[in-house]
TrEMBL record:
Organism: Candidatus Bilophila faecipullorum
InterPro entries: Bacterioferritin, Ferritin-like, Ferritin-like_diiron, Ferritin-like_SF, Ferritin_DPS_dom
Known role: Iron-storage protein, whose ferroxidase center binds Fe(2+), oxidizes it using dioxygen to Fe(3+), and participates in the subsequent Fe(3+) oxide mineral core formation within the central cavity of the BFR protein shell.
Protein name: Bacterioferritin
GO biological process annotation, one example: iron ion transport
Domain of life of the organism encoding this protein: Bacteria
Record-listed heme b binding positions: 59
Ferritin-like diiron domain sequence ranges: 8-152
Keyword Heme included in the entry's annotation: yes
Residues binding Fe cation 1: 25, 58, 61, 134
GO cellular component: cytosol
Residues at which Fe cation 3 binds: 57
Length: 176
């Protein structure tokens, strides 16, 4: 194997983990938006709006992975890493999402190591940055799950009927 081939193998290994991470982010976007709609329909506006914001974070992560994949000469994937779970009860959403985020953190730490082992510190730093944000998501889901478990219907009744504040998407139409 030539040096050029060895280098390309290392790049391909990094592209592979970046695409796996992108697939996980795309799944999270779809899962969390589905939950956003469900929670909004159930009149838990405060929960719905926070999950929508987290979904937007995940969308940004997916895009950041795609941009890095393109920089390395790869093609970003478009598949979801898992099937979206629909029709969850409000009491199931937050522990479920906590598990998703904890699995993501564990996996991204492995991917970060893979990037470093293959000499790509730029991709490793991208994983570090995104890991910090995934930890914030984990903390929110964990705290909310604990409140629901500890306080039950008392906590849920406080949130029920809460407005879902308008959250600007800062998409193309609103870009300034």
């Amino acid at each position: 194997m030539t040096q050029v081939d060895a280098k390309q193998d290392r790049v391909n290994t990094v592209i592979d983990v970046l695409n796996k991470a992108r697939s996980m982010e795309l799944y999270a976007v779809h899962q969390y938006m589905n939950q956003h709609y469900t929670l909004d329909d159930l009149d838990y506006g405060e929960f719905a709006s926070k999950i929508k914001l987290i979904s937007i974070d995940e969308m940004r992560h997916a895009e950041e992975f795609a941009e890095r994949i393109k920089e390395l000469g790869g093609e970003p994937c478009h598949e979801l890493s898992a099937k979206v779970v629909k029709g969850q009860k409000v009491t199931d959403v937050f522990p479920f999402n906590q598990d998703v985020e904890e699995d993501t953190i564990e996996t991204y730490n492995k991917f970060l190591k893979t990037c470093r082992e293959n000499g790509d510190n730029v991709s490793a730093r991208l994983f570090e940055k995104i890991l910090d944000e995934e930890q914030v998501h984990t903390n929110y889901f964990s705290d909310t799950a604990a409140h629901i478990e500890t306080l039950g219907q008392t906590y849920l009744s406080k949130i029920a009927g809460s407005p879902s504040p308008e959250i600007p998407s800062h998409g193309f139409v609103n870009a300034e």
